[in-house]
Amino acid sequence: MKRREFLGSCALLSGFAPLACAVALPEGVEVRRYARARLVDAHGNPLRQAAIAAETNYVFMYPYAATPCFLLRLAKSVPPAKAMHREQGDPYMAPGGVGPARDLVAFSAICAHKLAYPTRDVSFIRYQRRRSATSSGNVIHCCADHSVYDPSAGARVVAGPAPQPLACIVLEHDAARDELYAVGTAGAEQFVPFFAKYEMKLTFEYGGLGRAHAPVGDTTVVRELSNYCRNTIEC
Ligand code: FES
Questions:
Q1: Tens-place pLDDT, residues 94-129
Q2: Is there a contact between 160 and 142 (Cβ–Cβ < 8 Å)?
Q3: Whose CA is nearest to atom 1 of ligand 1?
Q4: 144 in ligand 1 pocket by Cβ < 6 Å?
Q5: Predicted TM-score of the model (pTM)
Q6: 34: which residues sit within 8 A by CB, 6+ positions away?
Q7: What are the residue boundaries of the structural domains of the chain, listed by start?
């Protein structure tokens, strides 16, 4: 997305708190920067990188109270991914992993196809380590219509109907304090269509759309998907 186009998309959010602004990082990763939120555990303590299990689905909300994201520790370090493309074709670069092994990545958990996402009741989308009849393994697989994303390559689409990658959640790791932060997104966000599609559902669940669309604040709680969602669909 070109800077001018991005600023135009910011205007779409103008009915809510103007959270976002564009920051071009030196590495060439253009970040849509939101308020910096520290990742914490269920007790409110900073999430230490060593406490994050490999190839396990973790969920946290960012940048809004109702927009879920996946946090993953992959089995290898993750370099930045160049030549990523949004649906309209404009290019961007996905950030690589963070942490000592560069293996920690995060993505919006809102599927780029028809916006399936993890709820408290069910999740059709999740990281799948093992190969299955419909999946090659080591992918984020949305079982709703079998869109498959590669988390080691910016959540690039590798199969299925999704027209573009999942949005990257840009992380920072403060090595001195061993603290993780979410600071923004890179790539194609789905927040505007997400809030439009699920307006009534979110209004009911959160006691108002404004609460669902509120920024997460200074901290956001990270939970294993299995502790957040009652039914994770396998495929
Ligand atoms: S909503 Fe995820 S593949 Fe259709």
A1: 999 999 999 999 999 999 999 999 999 999 999 999
A2: yes
A3: 114
A4: yes
A5: 0.89
A6: 19, 20, 62, 63, 182, 183, 184, 185, 215
A7: 3-114+165-230
